[in-house]
Amino acid sequence: MKAAVLYEAGQPIQVEDVSIENPHAGEVMVRVAAGGVCHSDLHVMNGDLTAPLPIVLGHEGAGVVEKVGEGVADFKPGDHVVLLWRASCGQCQYCLSGRPALCEMGTGIRWSGNLSDGTSRFQRGDRVIHHHAGVSAFSELTVLPREGLVKIDPSVPIEKAAIVGCAVMTGVGAVINTARVEPGASIAVIGCGGVGLNAIQGGNLAGAEKIIAVDVLENKLGYARQFGATHTVNAGEVDAIESVKELTGGRGVDYAFEVIGNPRTIVQAYQMIRRGGTLVVVGVAPMGAQVAINASSIMLDEKTIRGSLYGSCNAKLDAPRLLNLYKAGKLKLDELISREYPLEKINDAFDALRHGEVARSIVRFS
Ligand SMILES: NC(=O)c1ccc[n+]([C@@H]2O[C@H](COP(=O)([O-])OP(=O)(O)OC[C@H]3O[C@@H](n4cnc5c(N)ncnc54)[C@H](O)[C@@H]3O)[C@@H](O)[C@H]2O)c1
Ligand SMILES: [Zn+2]
Ligand SMILES: [Zn+2]
After folding, report:
1. How far is CA 352 from CA 184, 287, 357, 359, 362, in A?
2. pTM for the whole thing?
3. Which residues of the chain carry a pLDDT beneath 50?
4. In the CATH scheme, what is the code of domain 2-151+333-364?
5. Which ligand is located closest to the Cα atom of residue 94?
6. Which fold has domain 171-308?
7. Which atom of ligand 1 is nearest the CA belonging to 38?
């Protein structure tokens, strides 16, 4: 079967034949229907974010269960599933304390590139190929731990469900779960790509009064308005911090969401929040990068800085909920998918992401 493999950072992805082993006990094989093209994969391709290489990329996707391993009773062939890039075991300290996005099992899978038993199901010749975050959605078939899947309503178009696997869960979740934005609040979203547009939608769902979208590309600000931004700021043309302050009576916003992963915009976002406000960092900065924030202002202004991993979600609860909101016409998914690519064109899909051409694109399997 065909899969998209990254051998080395800085090199193009190779679409090639890879062999896949049957699911081991507790695992599920999925025929992937669509995989979303997220900047976190681009960070791995650039080397800004490390991952065990070679790797089958793709961490956002949905598909249909093909077969199940021994002891899997909760999934059966034919089930429609969203693939989760952070499996949650339900038993570790983080899962038990209501923070499954920090699950020790899922975290172990991410950094080892192997499934829970320490081995990979992908191979090419003699060479072991790793799993990306336990998902590897850019592959005709993939194997996940049963803890990394959530069953969904088969009446939802499966390619729409795919983007819930990362962009929607992360962006909406940052606003609803991490920040717990309250009705009437003001928010700024810095970076209006696939994830940022969902933070904007999250702001709408939460009843935020002002939703200020900040980006350097006019097409992204256009998408932002379509997704419910009340104001837009082109940070390439004006001073973004001053503009956000002007729009909020000189004080700054209650919440700012940095959805780029740039130390400079993280500091900018901190400066955009009012005294007592909260900065939520969603963007993935290059590993080892530091931010310098005025130390006394943290105390004097009582500011909060929070990280948001996977929208601090409880994915098994949140994914079906988000899809119900889509069915009820309260969450935009159709408008998010600007383009579809066949697997063979995956490098073009990442070029389009790199150049800011799309809201989100997907790789669609026939
Ligand atoms: N926290 C998480 O769990 C999580 C999950 C998924 C993605 N991410 C990260 O979120 C970030 C966004 O992902 P995405 O897929 O939406 O990426 P994207 O490339 O679609 O969007 C990034 C946006 O930022 C804008 N931008 C770049 N530089 C800017 C600047 N200086 N000022 C203002 N805007 C600027 C770009 O024009 C683009 O619209 C990435 O870093 C990604 O790795 C984090
Ligand atoms: Zn992602
Ligand atoms: Zn756990």
Report:
1. 36, 24, 5, 10, 11
2. 0.98
3. none
4. 3.90.180.10
5. 3
6. Rossmann fold (3.40.50)
7. 15
